[in-house]
Q: What sequence folds into this?
């Protein structure tokens, strides 16, 4: 079941087309669900939580994909011992090629992690991480598709400049990134090794790499990840002042 404000009727219509029951009442969704996904912008988290808290039970699991909102923030808005998972997905999930990271809250039970892993894996790669890694994940894979779209656009523009048709340039650029990514994943080689393997002495690739190095491509990408990671934090803090997150060594409640 899915809920959304009346202003988002188009979204609910798309859900109905998939055979999903819809409503305007968030509480109704909770009362009819074992796993509740909260997919709203950070400023709306408090309002949604206030609507579902009265009917949220301990047997239920809440999965939040709200940018920058910590697990402890959400736990503070729900009944005591509520089970909360924080997720950062990305848009390639719509074509089954997403990259998602998730962190589990202190009240989560055995099996919650495996359940979320299974759900997220239906739309791509999924991995559990400590919560302190979620903001960096946001800067890397969460925002990463937009960086790669810019790379594809730039490569395609280069192809057009050198005389290739636009449509062909875009397809070649996209397939090049797809193939390069598959090599990294399938061959289990460091990207630097694969890069060096392409560069023949005095060949065209090393000339191209020289231009990228002069332009500071890697430094620009590092800065982009850093900026987006920090933006995740500040966006969440603006909506709900950040409560502390567990450190890497802090263990889940109830574990020895």
A:
């Amino acid at each position: 079941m899915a809920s959304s404000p009346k202003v988002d009727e188009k979204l609910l219509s798309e859900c109905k087309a998939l055979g999903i029951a819809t409503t305007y009442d968030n509480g109704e969704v909770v009362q009819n669900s074992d796993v509740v996904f909260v997919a709203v912008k950070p400023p709306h988290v408090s309002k949604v939580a206030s609507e579902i808290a009265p009917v949220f039970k301990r047997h239920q699991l809440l999965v939040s994909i709200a940018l920058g909102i910590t697990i402890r923030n959400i736990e503070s808005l729900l009944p005591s011992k509520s089970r909360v998972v924080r997720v950062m997905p990305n848009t390639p999930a719509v074509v089954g090629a997403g990259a998602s990271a998730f962190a589990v809250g202190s009240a989560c039970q055995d099996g919650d992690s495996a359940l979320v892993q299974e759900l997220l894996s239906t739309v791509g790669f999924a991995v559990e991480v400590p919560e302190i890694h979620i903001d960096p994940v946001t800067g890397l894979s969460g925002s990463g598709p937009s960086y790669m779209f810019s790379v594809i656009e730039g490569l395609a523009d280069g192809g057009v400049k050198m005389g290739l048709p636009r449509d062909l340039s875009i397809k070649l650029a996209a397939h090049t990134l797809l193939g390069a990514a598959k090599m990294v994943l399938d061959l289990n080689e460091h990207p630097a090794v694969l890069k060096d393997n392409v560069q023949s002495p005095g060949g065209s690739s090393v000339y191209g790499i020289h231009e990228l190095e002069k332009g500071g491509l890697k430094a620009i990408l590092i800065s982009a990840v850093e900026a987006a990671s920090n933006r995740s934090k500040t966006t969440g803090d603006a909506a709900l002042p950040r409560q502390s997150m567990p450190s890497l060594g802090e263990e889940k409640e109830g574990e020895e």
Remarks:
- Residues 2-135 form a domain with the Rossmann fold fold (CATH 3.40.50.720).
